[in-house]
Design brief:
Helices cover 21% and strands 39% of the residues. The chain is of the alpha/beta class. The chain has a single domain (2-137), classed as D-tyrosyl-trna(Tyr) Deacylase, Chain: A, CATH 3.50.80.10. Strands 1, 2, 3, 6, 7 and 8 form a six-stranded mixed beta sheet that branches. The radius of gyration is 15 Å and the shape is globular. The termini are close together. Keywords: Cytoplasm, Hydrolase, RNA-binding, tRNA-binding. A motif (Gly-cisPro motif, important for rejection of L-amino acids) lies at residues 137-138. It comes from Acinetobacter celticus. It catalyses: a D-aminoacyl-tRNA + H2O = a tRNA + a D-alpha-amino acid + H(+); glycyl-tRNA(Ala) + H2O = tRNA(Ala) + glycine + H(+).
Amino acid sequence: MRALLQRVLEAKVVVEGETTGEIQHGILVFLGFAKEDTFEKGQKLIDKILKYRFFDDEQGKMGWNIAQAKGSLLLVSQFTLMANTQKGLRPDFGPAMPPAEAKILYTQLVTYAQSQFPHVQTGIFAADMKVHLVNDGPVTFNLEIE
């Protein structure tokens, strides 16, 4: 399971001209699931994201998590994160979880995230999403749970 985290000043997801999720200051999270991923792995990843010291504290160091920074979370499913890009000139999506299973896991993880943190917005699973963001820093981290 992979998550690409971007600290943002603002971000939103637009599907067919409608905004489906929007945050100001916070973290935009792109989530990718591998075939062997589980809800338990996802819980660990969400917990890590919520505790990850990603924001500047009073000393200007990355010492605050999202709650301490009074930020929001925008979760977006992105199966392309699981592509194998080591060989050839075309991504191999074989490692990615099949869409039907991934949708269930994504929905479960969104519900879990919302139960752990009050400011969670989302994209729409498997939709043609247009993601708008203003990256803060830029600060971007790749987290993996095995």
